[in-house]
Design goal:
The complex is a heterotetramer, with two copies of chain A (319 residues) and two copies of chain B (639 residues).
Chain A (H helix, E strand, L loop, with lengths): L37 H16 L6 E5 L14 E4 L5 H11 L4 E7 H6 L2 H10 L3 E7 L2 E2 L5 E2 L23 H7 L5 E6 L3 H13 L4 E6 L11 H5 L4 E5 L7 H6 L3 E3 L5 H9 L4 E8 L6 H4 L7 H14 L3
Parallel strand pairs in A: 1-2, 1-3, 3-4, 4-8, 7-8, 9-10, 9-11
Antiparallel strand pairs in A: 5-6, 7-11
Helix pairs in contact in A: 1-6, 5-9
Chain B lengths: L3 E2 L4 H4 L11 E4 L2 E9 L4 H15 L2 E7 L14 E9 L10 E6 L2 H9 L3 E10 L8 H14 L5 E5 L1 H5 L10 H12 L4 H11 L5 H21 L2 E4 L9 E5 H11 L4 E4 L6 H14 L2 E4 L3 H14 L3 E5 L1 H16 L4 E7 L16 H6 L8 E3 L4 H18 L2 E7 H5 L1 E5 L5 H5 L36 E3 L13 H21 L11 E8 L3 H13 L4 E6 L1 E3 L5 H6 L1 E8 L20 H10 L4 E4 L8 H11 L6
Parallel strand pairs in B: 2-9, 3-6, 6-7, 7-8, 11-12, 11-13, 13-14, 14-16, 15-16, 19-20, 19-22, 22-23
Antiparallel strand pairs in B: 1-8, 3-5, 4-5, 10-17, 15-21
The chains are: A alpha/beta (319), B alpha/beta (639).
Bound molecules: thiamine diphosphate (2 copies), iron/sulfur cluster (2 copies) and magnesium ion (MG) (2 copies).
């Protein structure tokens, strides 16, 4: 059979580290979401975070699926992978598994993550790679123009449910918490930039799979989904704890505070499943859950060592 | 004891115990085919595997094929329960499993019956069979034995009844677990195998078991050897010609696994599926120590995605699966082609469609591999024909994937996967396994798809390279990887992706005709059938038929020069382990006939009126069957 | 005001207000093509849809095509933002979107530029354009306008500047939401549309909105009408020939949806995907009342599984999707074929590969539809060519699925899906929609696959039928649906499944040649391109070229008689909206050339040296472009 | 285009109801699982249940995926659908959706249900069709000969994890409970035939999606997975409650009793996630969760009515 020589001549070259990045350095193409789309606020918060953390753009990867929300990587000036609907997490896992040194973010929509991506969502939570997973939950299929999503509240009218959604919306927070090795589960809302920022910062600091659900307005189709929460601070409840997420100014506006220890898994379930309030904050965190790329880390051998192993293996089969 | 022809009464008369013969007669032959069949769970497979490996390591040409039952746990002493191994050994290299067995080790008469009914036993076959059933206290069993012997009568089978159980009981209390080693011992004496090697192989195979287990097995081995020595009056000698170059022995899945390592790939993302899984079992065992990872994903879709993510971030990764798993990877393959992601996909083909025959051989994923992805998704499809090529093609695949930024699908099958064959020990070099990641900075504005307008080739940029930041997308895009819907940009992207196949095709050599370059009939095949086809072609030529054969290794793009080659023959016939309508079937006309997959491909490619013959027996093709087919399809033949 | 040629300065001079003209001149033509383009979100699409539907309902031949931007929310006043509709109306039936627009309603000069650059405007095109930008307070905008006018100069475009915004402000405060109705009003006057019908259509389209909204829109409509009456000095008359038979007007996805109901299918399991989803939107609206269900599953795999489960338990069900979703259904399609499950799968093709061009037309899923499933999985693939056929083929598909116990894939595309065309009102009969489930007892031991050995046909047993209990399986099985791995049984199952296609093929009629049955060139196409191809062929014949065309509706099995037809022409050329290598491209040789998908199929099928031409512009082919191609490919031509 | 007449002439014929069925009437092909395989006990319990409930074989459908466990339908003499690996639930949903009168069972393996079928498992739980879902959990991939499954305990050696499973086994009970509309979640063990029977009876009586996880021994590969529980009654804990599952005799043998109200979702989470004991019984039940085929039930119209609707629709598009 033919043999191919060549390929590119490769020398591992490091990068000089006396560089610094401004917010603009993280800005990619101009965001093309609808005016007033909640995704804009998240994009800004993320860019702010990257600047504050001074993450080298070339060592940062945003992986997404397909959907309005999944256009996110195009609007960042980092490496990006705008892949298949529902499949952001397996790809992100592959990136992290072989390149643990990279900062990996996964951005998904609610249909993307919870519907077609449901299996990957559960299993990636269990693998617990050190990835920040952002689910932009607008309770609808935006890009395909208004179909019911698993998080659509019961009764919400859409093009596939003209008489209203048949089922109650699912609860991504509770389900994520229920998965073995779940290590970080938080919720925030797009209308609270500082809370988004604080939540994502906490998620980035966390070592493991940080699942962040962001309640996101879709002026085009679900404009009023969170109207109550925005109109009436009383509908919102902040989860507070020394080891939780705290945005002091907000605590003045939102007077419903619940003291919740993120280590308390059972109470996290209770808070996640109890109706009535929009709960924002850190539901659950477990810093001891094993991190997949560490569990699977392997020795980096030299070519010579590898050759030796390879020949030893061939010896075992030698005549 | 002397092998004797079976007859309904005769056996009943025979005595169970055996008398010492006076010096065995030695049957000297250039090749011999052995089958070991037992109820599944009695270990005939293990026995056969060891016999095969040792024979190969001693220098005999060898080819083994596993006999696998359909059920998880078929009822004992029934034909469907037949499980075991066929080992064909020869003085010269052996390239396929042959036609029928010359010697059979049968643990009971029912599994023997199964092989007999499938025409797996040669006329005059020597059959060494467990004798306990003939005189079993259960009358039904005795009746079954008698009925079986009746059915088996008239084929000149030479029976030797062996008190396997009785013997084994002298060493272990559960003979069901030990008979296979006893039988192995007998085989060692009959074929003069190097018992020391066998002991080593046993020690290795049972390395995870306790010393007691190993010792018990060795004891049974010795027992079988001694019993044979005492009681058999014949031996078989298949002369050994020591190969001049160093050789290795392994099955196709092991070759794929070691080949993957030799190619420098370091991540295999997979989901278990027969018959592909054993390759990842093997990798799981040795890969980590080497610095590689086998990631068992939650499903085949995730496996493909994780492999793609790993490739995107660094070295080419691969995924391995079989038919149903391939189906699930379809969407991700389209993405990989669209984003020009280097990716190697191994499909160990099994019987289809759907779940089909999970453990059996078939070659019917060819067109799905080439055309299965919606939209125009040009990529490479290649197929090794031997265990050795399973090894080599992994490096080739990885290099093509890298150099052409594309998907390479490697099609093997259950026959290659589980069959064992010796081949020249491959040279492994550091060049590719060294291959560090290039993380050097690139100039701002470097194009992620910097297509050479002529070749469509471009150098990829990898996360970590300063200045190279871009967002990859499965949407239509320009060379900057920006989403673009303009007609000309979409047309251009299609051209560039397609062009790479034209360029690759021009680097390929025309395949070599096996036999004369012109004649009456050319048989064309691909994949694991090469050995059987060429053996049949040899026999046909010995019969004076003007037949040659051609074997294809690249299916997409196709190797050059095919039409010229075809033109030099009166008739061209494809032979595949895959379904095609027979031309004389009811309602089937030359117009609506559904032809074999390779046929379809080659007809479109060459416009030559290629005929086809395909079967889906769930087992490798036999040279004799192919020979029969060749006779029938000769231009002057009746077909 | 009189249409005036554009020029960089001229416009600036013009006055915005308009003087009353003295009696409009009437441009009487057999057909006219209108485009309405705005920034996305300004509603040009809605305007165009209503204009198209009303024109069709009044009896004009009509064909509409949507103009859709790539981005969710492209920046206003930029070419990529262009969104709208092309409506081609004629006295005779219209079968495609034609070449270039004769009249354009542009909401700003940038979106106009976009269409101009794509060659969508005819020489001398009348352009009615929002005038506010020319004199906008923002200097940049004034500059952009001037630059645009310069670029647009020299094509004899006739400009009429219309103070759309200014006018609308007299009725609503946010003209961005109203301009489209104002423009619609103008069109009504220009083309003498039945304003009453338009009001009805508006009322229907906004039925879910408040009365205020409806009234406002009607007011704007009237305003536009009056303004045009007052200020325009020309009208366009496309005479109407009232059709003799009752007609209906709908787009292809609506036709698929109503067709599905008429076929008697009662369950549609789907997962949203462009451009297929609108069919399920429509179904969701009307199906429940009828007794049907649209199940939006969690993904395409589940959608296929749920449809199969429903078919297994009763009436044939269907699933609808597009490329990426088809990829995910691959495994389940294999199961349906293997278990002979009646199933209808609609694939509304879009641009590929991978996510590709989600909203745009392409025909590149053909081979994946036929050969995409691992193993040999014979099934039916058909493709409607018109909106009417979208309706009819659903009944045909369901009937074939039922009678042949097989999978039928229906391939439509984005052009059919969103295009609107009038066609003869179909006759719907109770026969199939009645069709109760047969739950009558069957004799014990009735075979679940009671194959007729000649035809492979068998009658299926449904849960609920006493005596019929059996377990369906995707594993190789005998006629009793028992798992079986014997070679002959596996061969038999393959034969029976394959045979059905031979039988079906023999019930099909040879396709009819459009034009003379013999000649120099035969153009072969399939799917939505029929209208454009035949119009081009007509023109070519008017030029004296000896050209005919052939359009295929069954792709698997292929309709009979193709080879005979091809033989009667010097040259055969396929034309597809799909990629194929151009023969003169670098590195491309006759041997390695990747030909169009239909070409592959027909070359293998007929062994005729069929040439191909394919493009992936993400828009329907234009007759003029096809004509150009025909000229180039004439046997005596230079290509 | 060609038109097809024919199809079979069909008259809806009822079935006489004065029939009765013995256990044998439910026995299909001889079970081919390994000797000692836990699946045998489940098969027997199911056949016993069907006999006691006198479910007409022709009105009962067993849907399965691929795996040892998925061979189940072949061993029943009812209608059966032995489909694709991981896809039993969508098929079962399709059956139930169009034929609510049929008794539908879904039998799956742990890999089948929780790994490749993960997304369907979550979503079918949410749809809540009236189906009895049996997951035969042997903590391993049996049919493919010993690979790690999502429920394999950490450290369990397999062919794909020769050094032991990398991750802790996932918790199907807790995750199922966490899903919106979850309505019945129970656990039993193959070595307790009466408990299997009582659990499945309860599941059959429940109207909705009854998820039953059966701890199943695989002598071939995970023979000792539940050895502790079988050896030492103290390792087992029975969940008891008036509205729960009760097998009096067992309560004598297994002395660890926990009084748990199946309506108490939060406590169900706690019990499901607390390690140390093999908990058997009913974790969660909600009889008010909407049942999918009822939510989606549609009027059965006559051919005439349908024609009328169809023509009305065509009128809307008429010229
Ligand atoms: C396999 C596949 N199925 C379906 C689609 C069509 N599709 C694109 S985005 C989308 C869902 C979008 O909703 P969501 O994930 O919530 O993201 P959003 O647009 O709301 O941000 C769908 C169904 C696709 N692109 N691929
Ligand atoms: C799509 C697909 N992937 C993989 C397989 C191979 N396969 C068959 S059964 C099985 C898993 C069996 O494990 P489990 O589901 O736990 O069932 P068990 O055999 O343990 O009862 C796998 C991976 C397949 N048949 N189809
Ligand atoms: S459709 Fe909704 S989600 Fe999408 S961009 Fe617009 S507002 Fe945002
Ligand atoms: S392998 Fe395990 S699960 Fe499968 S049949 Fe045997 S014992 Fe049962
Ligand atoms: Mg969404
Ligand atoms: Mg299992």
């Amino acid at each position: 059979m033919i043999q191919f020589g060549g390929g590119c001549s490769l020398l591992g070259v490091g990068t000089d580290d006396d560089r610094s990045w401004s917010m603009q350095d993280y800005e990619g193409a101009i965001a093309r979401w609808c005016p007033g789309c909640g995704d804009h606020a998240v994009l800004t918060a993320v860019q702010r975070l990257l600047e504050d953390e001074q993450l080298p753009p070339e060592e940062t990867v945003f992986v997404s699926g397909i959907g309005c929300s999944s256009r996110f990587p195009h609007y960042m000036k980092t490496y990006g992978f705008h892949g298949l609907h529902g499949r952001a997490l397996p790809v992100a896992t592959g990136v992290k598994l072989r390149r643990p040194e990279l900062n990996v973010f996964a951005v998904m929509g609610d249909g993307d993550c919870c519907s077609i991506g449901g299996g990957h969502w559960i299993h990636t939570t269990r693998y617990n790679p050190n990835i920040v997973a952002i689910m932009l939950d607008n309770g609808v299929y935006g890009l395909t123009k208004n179909q019911t999503s698993p998080t659509s509240p019961q009764g919400l009218k859409s093009n596939t449910a003209p008489r209203g959604a048949y089922l109650a919306g699912m609860n991504p927070i509770s389900t994520t918490i229920s998965v073995t090795n779940a290590s970080f589960v938080a919720q925030t809302g797009d209308w609270l930039p500082d809370h988004i920022y604080a939540t994502l910062k906490k998620a980035l600091d966390h070592k493991g799979f940080s699942f962040v659900r962001i309640l996101q307005r879709c002026p085009a189709y679900t404009d009023n989904l969170f109207a109550d929460a925005m109109r009436d601070p009383n509908r919102v409840e902040l989860l507070l704890h020394p080891s939780g997420i705290s945005v002091p100014d907000l605590e003045q506006i939102y007077k419903n505070h619940t003291y919740h220890d993120p280590a308390d898994r059972v109470n996290a379930h209770r808070l996640a499943e109890e109706d009535g309030k929009f709960r924002l904050g850190l539901f659950y965190q477990n810093e001891d859950a094993p991190v997949y790329e560490e569990v699977r880390s392997v020795p980096r051998k030299t070519a010579e060592e590898k050759l030796e192993i390879l020949n030893r293996e061939l010896d075992r089969h030698a005549v | 004891m002397t092998p004797s022809s079976a007859s309904t009464k005769a056996p009943a008369k025979k005595k169970k115990a055996a008398k010492k013969p006076k010096g065995p007669k030695v049957i000297k032959v250039p090749e011999h085919t052995v089958e070991i069949v037992s109820d599944s769970g009695e270990g005939a497979q293990r026995c056969g595997q060891i016999f095969g490996r040792v024979s190969a390591k001693m220098g005999n040409g060898t080819w083994t094929v596993e006999i696998i039952p359909a059920e998880i746990q078929p009822p004992a002493r029934t034909p469907p329960s037949a499980s075991g191994n066929r080992i064909r050994i020869g003085t010269k290299p052996v390239t396929n499993w042959g036609d029928a067995a010359n010697l059979v080790m049968a643990f009971n008469e029912q599994v023997l019956l199964h092989r007999h009914r499938l025409g797996a036993l040669s006329d005059g076959c020597i059959i060494l069979i467990e004798s306990m059933w003939e005189t079993h206290e259960d009358e039904d069993i005795r009746k079954e034995w008698a009925a079986a012997m009746e059915e088996l009568d008239g084929h000149n089978y030479k029976f030797v009844k062996v008190p396997m159980e009785e013997q084994c009981l002298t060493v272990v209390e559960n003979p069901r677990r030990g008979k296979n080693m006893f039988v192995l011992g007998m085989l060692c004496w009959i074929y003069s195998r190097d018992v020391e090697r066998v002991r080593h192989q046993i020690a290795h195979d049972f390395r995870k078991k306790s010393k007691e287990v190993v010792d018990a097995n060795i004891a049974l081995l010795n027992l079988g050897y001694e019993w044979a020595e005492k009681n058999l009056d014949f031996r078989v000698e298949v002369p050994i010609e020591k190969p001049d170059k160093p050789m290795v022995v392994m099955n196709g899945n092991q070759a794929i696994a070691i080949g993957a390592i030799a190619s420098g790939m370091e991540l295999c993302a997979m989901y278990p599926i027969t018959p592909a899984t054993s390759a990842s079992h093997y990798l799981s065992d040795i890969f980590e120590d080497y610095g590689g990872i086998v990631h068992q994903a939650e499903d085949e879709i995730a496996a493909a995605g994780t492999a793609i993510g790993a490739s995107y971030a660094g070295k080419v990764a691969f995924t391995i699966t079989s038919g149903p798993g391939m189906a699930l990877k379809t969407e991700f393959l389209g993405l990989a082609v669209m984003t020009e992601m280097p990716l190697v996909v191994v499909n160990v083909q099994r019987g289809g469609p759907s779940t089909g025959l999970p453990t059996k051989v078939e070659q019917a994923d060819l067109l799905a591999a080439i055309f299965g992805q919606p939209g125009d998704a040009p990529h490479v499809v290649m197929a090794p024909a031997t265990m050795e090529e399973c090894f080599i093609c992994m490096t080739t695949a990885r290099r093509i994937a890298e150099a052409f930024r594309t998907v390479v699908i490697v099609l093997t099958d259950a026959n290659l996967a589980t069959g064992v064959q010796p081949f020249a020990r491959p040279e492994v070099t550091a060049e590719w396994i060294a291959h560090p990641l290039d993380l050097s900075p690139v100039p701002e504005g470097t194009l992620p798809y910097d297509w050479d307008p002529k070749t469509g080739l471009s150098k990829r940029v990898i996360p970590g390279q300063p200045g190279g930041m871009y967002t990859l997308t499965g949407l239509a895009h320009d060379e900057n990887s920006k989403v673009a819907y303009q007609p000309d940009i979409n047309q251009r992207g299609h051209e560039m992706r397609s062009r790479k196949l034209a360029v690759l095709q021009q680097t390929l050599q025309p395949p070599e005709v096996y036999g004369p370059g012109k004649g009456d009939l050319l048989v064309v095949g691909w994949g694991s059938t090469q050995g059987a086809i060429e053996e049949a072609v040899d026999r046909a030529r010995n019969e004076g038929l003007s037949v040659s054969s051609l074997h294809l290794r690249f299916l997409s793009p196709l190797e050059p020069g095919l039409k010229e080659i075809f033109k030099r023959f009166k008739k061209v016939l494809t032979i595949e382990i895959g379904y095609s309508d027979d031309k004389d079937a009811p309602f089937v006309t030359d117009e609506n006939r559904r032809r074999g997959q390779l046929t379809w491909l080659l007809r479109a490619h060459t416009l030559v009126d290629i005929d086809c013959w395909g079967r889906v027996p769930g087992e490798p093709l036999r040279p004799a069957v192919i020979l029969e087919t060749i006779r029938g399809f000769m231009p002057n033949g009746d077909k």
